[in-house]
């Protein structure tokens, strides 16, 4: 049973990462993202997921600085964007992200997408940042098993995390199996499929059964699949409500019912197409 918002997973390098965090894609830089981050921390979140691509790292930094929790209790993730990849470019992009966030170190730095011909040099830069102590853990995002095979062939460190699109329509069986075997923690992006399944009868009937919202049903399903999950909202009430998933457990039959919704449907790009 996963009991509280402070529950963590232990990554393959021994670093603890909260199982539940706030995503901030499309949260506007400035008040919107700053208030969302503050509300989340106030509600007990300790993990925030941003990216240079979201153009809101400054506002995230402001939120974490003005929240009533010390930096070392927080887990901050950002990502190197596609046009920042390559060895020197990544080192530069990391310093820019760090400055915008206003932090001396990052908890997790991810390669946002597997850009062909670039991601191995990008990974070498992440390894350097990790060895120098600028970042506590390094990982990837949107990597399929074949990308990971290629990366692992001559890398010094195994990625700690692979953040991928994951929701009841896209259960990522192959990638999950590969990551499980290599002790790479899976993390779900667009875990609620941006609301597209909130009216699905299989989800609404479970919401009724457990007296929970559709969002809470889906987020609980993520956690019980051992995914780290990072639902996004900029609304204080939703931020609080989404995290209220630690007082119930989906039974095996209901987990299977949600699993059965898989159609391998993506709402984001296919990494093989994005990475050309
Ligand atoms: N690595 C990658 O390539 C990617 C990473 N990500 C990360 O994953 C995070 C989450 O994914 P995201 O794409 O944002 O999608 P989510 O599945 O988290 O859905 C977010 C959407 O759902 C709405 N919402 C949130 N809570 C509720 C609720 N309780 N009831 C109704 N609507 C709700 C939000 O609106 P509102 O804010 O108005 O409440 C927003 O429109 C991102 O924010 C980002 O950090 C996302 C995409 C790609
Ligand atoms: O949000 C992210 O982190 C993404 O990478 C995606 O939004 C993705 O880049 C996309 O959908 C661009 O159209």
Automatic annotation (TrEMBL):
The keyword NADP applies. Substrate binds at residue 112. It comes from the Bacteria. The keyword Chaperone does not apply. The record marks 79 as: Lowers pKa of active site Tyr. Keywords: NADP, Oxidoreductase. Pfam families: Aldo_ket_red. InterPro entries: AKR (IPR020471), AKR5G (IPR044500), Aldo/ket_reductase_CS (IPR018170), NAD(P)_OxRdtase_dom_sf (IPR036812), NADP_OxRdtase_dom (IPR023210). Residues 29-262 form the NADP-dependent oxidoreductase domain. Belongs to the aldo/keto reductase family. This is Diketogulonate reductase-like aldo/keto reductase. It comes from Scopulibacillus darangshiensis.
């Amino acid at each position: 049973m996963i009991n509280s918002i402070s529950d963590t997973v232990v990554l393959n390098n021994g670093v603890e990462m909260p199982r539940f965090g706030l995503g901030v894609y499309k949260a506007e830089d400035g008040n919107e993202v700053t208030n969302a981050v503050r509300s989340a921390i106030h509600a007990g979140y300790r993990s925030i997921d941003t990216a240079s691509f979201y153009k809101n790292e400054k506002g995230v930094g402001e939120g974490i600085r003005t929240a009533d929790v010390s930096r070392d209790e927080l887990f901050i993730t950002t990502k190197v964007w596609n046009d920042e990849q390559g060895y020197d470019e990544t080192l530069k992009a990391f310093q820019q992200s760090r400055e915008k966030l206003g932090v001396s170190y990052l908890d997790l730095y991810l390669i946002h997408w597997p850009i062909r011909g670039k991601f191995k040099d990008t990974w070498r830069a992440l390894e350097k940042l990790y060895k120098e102590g600028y970042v506590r853990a390094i990982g990837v995002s949107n990597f399929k098993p074949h990308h990971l095979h290629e990366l692992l062939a001559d890398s010094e460190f195994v990625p700690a995390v692979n953040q991928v699109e994951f929701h009841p329509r896209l259960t990522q069986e192959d990638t999950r199996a590969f990551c499980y075997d290599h002790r790479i923690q899976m993390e779900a992006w667009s875990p609620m499929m941006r609301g597209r399944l909130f009216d699905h009868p299989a989800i609404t009937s479970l919401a009724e059964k457990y007296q929970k919202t559709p969002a809470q049903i889906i987020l609980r399903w993520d956690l019980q699949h051992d995914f780290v999950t990072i639902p996004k909202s900029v609304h204080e009430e939703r931020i609080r409500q989404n995290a209220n998933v630690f007082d119930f457990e989906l039974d095996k039959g209901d987990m299977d019912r949600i699993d059965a919704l898989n159609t391998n449907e993506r709402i984001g790009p296919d990494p093989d197409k994005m990475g050309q």
